[in-house]
Amino acid sequence: MGWIATTPEERRRQLGSFLLGTGGIGGIAAATGPGIGLSQEEGHKLIDRALDKEGIKVLDTADMYAAGASERIVGTWNAAHPDTDVLIQTKTGVTAEGPNLAPDRVRRQLAHSVAVLGRVDLYIAHQVDPNTPWAESLPVFSHAVESGVIRAYGLSNVDGAALSSALDSADRLKLVRPELIQNQYSLLARSDDQDVLPIVRNEGLAYTPFSPLATGLLAGRYSNGEKPTHGSRASIASRHAHYFDDEQVMVKIRAFDRLAAEHDVTSAGLALAWLVNHPLVTAPIVGPSKESHWTAVHEAQKLPWTSQLADRLDSLFS
Asked: Which residues are in the NADP-dependent oxidoreductase domain (predicted)?
């Protein structure tokens, strides 16, 4: 029996409807530069808002976000709020030289993250390391659970084969199993439908997708040929860049915008509602930095959901 709840409903109660992504605090993900991302003061205000008004239960960061600034700022907030019961989740394994889950490095990085953040509740292998077998890296995560350093661990950016291999390795070596999966997933990025989500369902894993709005493409920002502005997530992240020049995709997005308007919600609200109502999604990761971003979160929670609406979205983004 792991620490994460076993049923989808219990997992949502445990982790909340949304996780707060803090990659934009101190910078945007791995990016740094003048005017990009939230300052420490802005980051602290965002966390306060998320916990006090929005019911957020998990703060998500990583040791490489903003060259470590994200963890440091979350850590200073945590030090000023010693009695909070929010869960702190961080990740390791992404380096400038490529993926690295070597056991010694994972141990060092976990110790560093605990020191910077004050504690780590949930720890995630950020990327598959082709040079380090799961049989070498997973014992470090398992031992961290067994020794009480963390409560549970998970995997990010895994396909079905890598996830199956990790679970098999954990079982064969009698280790604590990974309990959380954090992959890119949205109406525009649905490859996990084929191989990852069936495993999530069969193994009772938590699934907390990132990039739920496809860096703004599903937020109605670029439907009419607009280009990302400097400092926006879309200007930094490259995973969706090819969509801007794909007219077939943009036609779908414009139809999606019209569907959102039919239901009197923003495009972002509809995109998040699809995830909130997905039976295998525990909680998407969001990183609001403006009031309008919170509006989309509220819309997603309040929108009456029907099988007809789900079918229309599946048909549009098959």
From this structure: 34-316
